[in-house]
Amino acid sequence: MAFKIIASQCTQCGACEFECPSGAISFKTDRFVVDPKICTECRVEFAAPKCRAICPMPNTCVPA
């Protein structure tokens, strides 16, 4: 399972894009999106998903 970004809650700060170790987050049209084919949920690299940890808005980066 990958993560997704709740667009209505996202402040578009961009922190998640730069912190994502797999490069799964990008800015498309008018919002940040997670590519589920690339997202690893940071399982190998970290104890918790980096997007969720870095996001200033609670419950914005969530399991898809």
Automatic annotation (TrEMBL):
4Fe-4S ferredoxin-type domain location: 1-30
GO MF, one example: metal ion binding
Requisite cofactors: [4Fe-4S] cluster
Sorted UniProt keywords: 4Fe-4S, Electron transport, Iron, Iron-sulfur, Metal-binding, Nitrogen fixation, Plasmid, Transport
One Pfam family matching this protein: Fer4
Domain of life of the organism encoding this protein: Bacteria
Full protein name: Ferredoxin-like protein in nif region
